[in-house]
């Protein structure tokens, strides 16, 4: 009897060891991919969905996400192999290529397709028109960055010369813009979410217009990598892009509340209801791309906006810096 008990125990132990080894083996098979995002934002909801819902793991990938403040720092990390993939504005790939990079940066999967900022006024305005900005003090974004270029593009679209028709402030660091407005600087400010909604909730300001709706579709934030990395890791890029596409479907198919719950771990200090509000606002204006394909019309629109702002070093051919082969494959 004792021998039978001992044998049974050994059998159970052996089975447990096999299961444990299999689990460890599965984990070891996941390929590490280092991703650097330019900032932490609800604007990037599909990326966080792909992580929390296990879409990357389903593709055999273990994504190590880090936040690297600033497009220049993010690109430096990519160029120096500190990260494998960068999530940043497409304009950065143009800046780098214009400097004569030996290993071109290729945009391979689009995450957002509109500007993500909103016009916030200090006073409540019921019937806003853009010409109300004339003669005001406007707290804009950093010069040369996509938010500022999109902002100026929209102002010019409405017949406002940013350098002559208003007092344009753009020498404040991105992280301090909201604080400056809350402290009394400016009549209007260009803000990302959730800050815009937080200010509205606290009575600091009022959302009166969307720069995303006004500027049209552009490859605002895109996953990109060095051409050499893409060629050497084509299967990884395809799997990564497929996981992102699954997350894009999730964001549009689920309720705003479900999306908010999915990404909440990345925004522990933000109220879940506020996250849902922001998700719905971005989703309603289709800021989240519905597929990862960066099309040529969007690319040209981006360069038109940069050119209008006087920040386009030179025009770049779509095929030179964009690789849609993976996005097209997973979108079929």
TrEMBL record:
Span of the signal peptide: 1-22
- Tell me where the transmembrane regions lie: none
GO CC: one term? periplasmic space
Q: Which PROSITE patterns match?
A: PROKAR_LIPOPROTEIN
Q: Which UniProt keywords apply?
A: Signal
What Pfam families does this protein map onto? Answer: NMT1_2 (PF13379)
**Compartment list:** Periplasm
Q: Which PANTHER family match?
A: ALIPHATIC SULFONATES-BINDING PROTEIN-RELATED (PTHR30024), TAURINE-BINDING PERIPLASMIC PROTEIN (PTHR30024:SF47)
Which family would the database say this protein is a member of? Belongs to the bacterial solute-binding protein SsuA/TauA family.
The protein's name: ABC transporter substrate-binding protein
Q: Which organism is it from?
A: Ureibacillus endophyticus
* Taxonomic lineage from the root: Bacteria, Bacillati, Bacillota, Bacilli, Bacillales
């Amino acid at each position: 009897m004792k021998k039978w008990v001992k044998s049974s125990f050994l059998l159970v132990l052996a089975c447990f060891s096999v299961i444990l080894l299999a689990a460890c083996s599965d984990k070891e098979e996941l390929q590490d991919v280092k991703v650097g995002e330019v900032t932490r934002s609800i604007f990037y909801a599909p990326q966080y969905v792909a992580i929390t819902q296990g879409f990357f793991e389903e593709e055999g990938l273990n994504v190590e996400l880090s936040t690297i403040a600033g497009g220049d720092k993010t690109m430096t990390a990519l160029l120096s192999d500190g990260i494998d993939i960068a999530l940043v504005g497409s304009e950065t790939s143009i800046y780098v290529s214009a400097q004569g990079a030996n290993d071109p940066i290729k945009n391979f999967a689009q995450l957002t397709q509109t500007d993500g900022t909103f016009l916030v006024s200090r006073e409540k305005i019921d019937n806003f028109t853009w010409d109300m900005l004339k003669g005001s003090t406007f707290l804009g974004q950093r010069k040369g960055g996509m938010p500022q270029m999109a902002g100026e593009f929209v102002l010019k679209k409405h017949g406002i010369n940013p350098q002559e028709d208003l007092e344009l402030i753009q020498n404040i660091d991105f992280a301090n813009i909201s604080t400056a407005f809350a402290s009394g600087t400016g009549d209007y400010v260009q803000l990302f979410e959730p800050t815009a909604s937080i200010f509205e909730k606290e009575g600091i300001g009022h959302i009166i217009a969307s720069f995303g709706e006004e500027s049209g579709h552009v490859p605002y934030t895109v996953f990109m990598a060095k051409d050499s990395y893409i060629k050497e890791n084509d299967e990884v890029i395809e799997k990564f892009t497929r996981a992102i596409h699954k997350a894009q479907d999730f964001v549009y198919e689920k309720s705003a509340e479900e999306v908010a719950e999915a990404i909440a771990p990345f925004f522990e200090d933000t109220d879940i209801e506020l996250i849902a509000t922001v998700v719905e606002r971005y989703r309603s204006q289709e800021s989240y791309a519905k597929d990862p394909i960066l099309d040529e019309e969007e690319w040209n629109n981006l360069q038109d906006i940069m050119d209008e702002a006087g920040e386009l070093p030179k025009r770049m051919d779509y095929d030179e810096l964009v690789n849609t082969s993976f996005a097209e494959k997973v979108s079929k």
